Amino acid sequence: MNDPMSSTFSALADPTRRAILARLALGESSVSELAAPFEMSMPAVSRHLKVLEKAGLITRGREAQWRPCKLKAEPLKQAADYLEEYRRFWEESFDRLDEYLKKLQAKEKRRGRKKR
Fold first, then answer.
1. Of the residues 28, 73, 98, 116, which has the maximum number of CB atoms within 10 A of its CB?
2. What is the pTM of this model?
3. Count of CB atoms within 10 A of residue 108's CB?
4. Cα 10 from Cα 102, distance rounded (Å)
């Protein structure tokens, strides 16, 4: 995938990768620390990390025996900005629906008074 946004959303589609990112939001961790909560092999965790790295969501380093992973939040910001436009759309739609329902309720109240 050449499109960075598509790579970001593709990487975020997996709950294991989202959990890894949540852990990295607390600070850098080693691969073994990241793998600890999951019931999967180290190669499987490594494959998840490769997807996250390819999407630009993490960096992996080498410090002697330690292989730290670190969150790179820039692609998440870009995804959040993209989704923000749709959040505004839905909020405006719900606001219009709310106003419409208030008008209907006011009409119903007026009709109820006339019937008496």
1. 28
2. 0.74
3. 10
4. 41
Q: What is the 3-state secondary structure (H, E, C) of the chain?
A: CCCHHHHHHHHHCCHHHHHHHHHHCCCCEEHHHHHCCCCCCHHHHHHHHHHHHHCCCEEECCECCECEEEECCHHHHHHHHHHHHHHHHHHHHHHHHHHHHHHHHHHHHHHHHHHC
Question: 11 - beta bridge partners?
Answer: none
State the number of CA atoms in the 13 A half-sphere of 79 facing the CB.
19
Q: What is the pLDDT of residues 9-29, one digit of tens each?
A: 999 999 999 999 999 999 999
Per-residue pLDDT tens over the stretch 72-111: 999 999 999 999 988 888 888 888 998 989 989 988 888 8
Token digits of residue 72? 């790179």
CA–CA dist 22, 53 (Å, integer): 15
